[in-house]
């Protein structure tokens, strides 16, 4: 009796949609962090997630929507910074500095921040998406307080420069500073951005 014909390997949606979706998001985040927005293709992300590329279109539609979901929506950067900056006005600078450095150093948040920065600095499309997502979120997180949103943006810009030097480029004197000393030096500057004249 002849053997039954071999069944073709199924493509498209696989069982366990939520697990599949999370696998795609995890793979996308890793590749965006490693290669930036332009360097991470949908085909490579699908391969890393072990799914058919059609599933990415099924869940997210396109690469821009995948990037927004994998990177921005998985970490509430604006809310975290606004919460720190809106705490006790006398210690807001230290609170925001600690929170921001914690984002770069956290095992879960570090890859997300690196994906954001690497992508936004190498792709105008990614930079535009980040502006469109983060600006309004800071505004919303401060309850529409335009002045505070502007102060937070200035403070975060200063901290971004330090983070780039410490965590991305590896500038010796910045890398060599113990974390507590780095916070001691940065906190008064951030405090001035947040509450100074």
UniProtKB/TrEMBL annotation:
<feature type="region of interest" description="Disordered">
    <location>
        <begin position="1"/>
        <end position="20"/>
    </location>
</feature>
<feature type="domain" description="HTH tetR-type">
    <location>
        <begin position="18"/>
        <end position="78"/>
    </location>
</feature>
<dbReference type="InterPro" id="IPR036271">
    <property type="entry name" value="Tet_transcr_reg_TetR-rel_C_sf"/>
</dbReference>
<dbReference type="Pfam" id="PF00440">
    <property type="entry name" value="TetR_N"/>
</dbReference>
<dbReference type="InterPro" id="IPR001647">
    <property type="entry name" value="HTH_TetR"/>
</dbReference>
<protein>
    <submittedName>
        <fullName>TetR family transcriptional regulator</fullName>
    </submittedName>
</protein>
<keyword id="KW-0238">DNA-binding</keyword>
<dbReference type="InterPro" id="IPR041678">
    <property type="entry name" value="TetR_C_16"/>
</dbReference>
<feature type="DNA-binding region" description="H-T-H motif">
    <location>
        <begin position="41"/>
        <end position="60"/>
    </location>
</feature>
<dbReference type="InterPro" id="IPR009057">
    <property type="entry name" value="Homeodomain-like_sf"/>
</dbReference>
<dbReference type="InterPro" id="IPR050109">
    <property type="entry name" value="HTH-type_TetR-like_transc_reg"/>
</dbReference>
<dbReference type="Pfam" id="PF17920">
    <property type="entry name" value="TetR_C_16"/>
</dbReference>
């Amino acid at each position: 009796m002849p053997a039954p014909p071999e069944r073709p390997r199924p493509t498209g949606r696989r069982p366990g949609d939520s697990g599949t979706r999370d696998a795609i998001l995890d793979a996308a985040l890793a590749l965006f962090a490693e290669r930036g927005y332009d360097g991470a293709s949908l085909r490579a992300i699908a391969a890393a997630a072990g799914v058919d590329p059609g599933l990415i279109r099924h869940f997210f539609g396109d690469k821009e929507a995948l990037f927004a979901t994998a990177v921005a929506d998985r970490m509430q950067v604006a809310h975290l910074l606004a919460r720190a900056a809106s705490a006790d006005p006398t210690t807001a600078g230290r609170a925001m500095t600690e929170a921001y450095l914690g984002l770069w150093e956290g095992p879960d948040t570090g890859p997300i921040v690196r994906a954001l920065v690497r992508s936004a600095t190498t792709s105008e499309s990614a930079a535009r998406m980040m502006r469109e997502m983060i600006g309004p979120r800071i505004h919303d997180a401060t309850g529409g307080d335009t002045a505070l949103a502007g102060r937070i943006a200035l403070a975060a810009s200063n901290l971004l420069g330090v983070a780039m030097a410490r965590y991305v480029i590896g500038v010796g004197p910045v890398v060599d500073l113990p974390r507590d000393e780095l916070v001691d030096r940065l906190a008064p500057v951030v405090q001035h951005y947040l509450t100074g004249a």
